[in-house]
Amino acid sequence: MITALTALSASVVTASLVAAPAAPLVAVAAESGAAGEGQLFGVDWGSFVLVFVVAFAASVLVVAAYSLGLRLLAAGDDRAHRPPIATAGAYACIALSGAAVLYGIYLIIPLFHP
User: Fold this and answer.
1) CB neighbour class for 78 (10 Å; exposed up to 12, middle 13-18, buried from 19)
2) Which of 18, 57, 60, 68 has the most CB within a 10 Å radius?
3) In tens digits, what is the pLDDT along the chain, a chain of 114 residues?
4) In sequence order, which residues have a C-beta less than 8 Å from that of residue 68 and are 6 or more positions away?
5) How far is CA 26 from each of CA 38, 53, 97, rounded to the nearest angstrom?
6) How far apart are CA 107 and CA 28, in angstroms?
7) Contacts of 32 (CB under 8 A, 6+ apart)
């Protein structure tokens, strides 16, 4: 009985795959007229590069803020001899990097901004 059901489900899956072949992405983009000026394979490369540069700069700034915060926490011989301005700066840098990460999560998850 289980073997018959497995064979039946395999034949249904195979038939659905054979019945509806997937169209190539390049052909779909070319037919819809999406490939305009400055586009290759339907991708706007100027926008792609802009998103890459902004994401790279934001990640560098977040990592720099966090590492500066850790460096400021390591200032002084021990916790009692750390300058108070270094402690405040460290907490501010770590809070800034944490806020940036939380904002990125907010932007990624659409449930948070309907």
Assistant:
1) exposed
2) 68
3) 444 444 444 444 444 444 545 545 454 455 555 556 667 788 899 999 999 999 999 999 999 999 999 999 998 888 888 999 999 999 999 999 999 999 999 999 999 887
4) 89, 90, 93
5) 16, 26, 40
6) 29
7) 42
User: Up-side HSE of residue 55: CA atoms within 13 Å toward CB?
Assistant: 9
- Rounded to a whole number, what is the largest CA-CA distance in the chain? 76
Write down the pLDDT at residue 35: 55
3-state secondary structure of 43: strand
Question: What string of H, E and C letters represents the secondary structure of 19-33?
Answer: HCCCCCHHHHHHHHC
Radius of gyration of the CA atoms of the chain, in A: 27
Contacts of residue 31, Cβ cutoff 8 Å, sequence gap at least 6: none
Q: Residues 6 or more apart from 26 whose CB is under 8 A from it?
A: 41, 42
**According to the model, what pLDDT value does residue 4 have?**
44
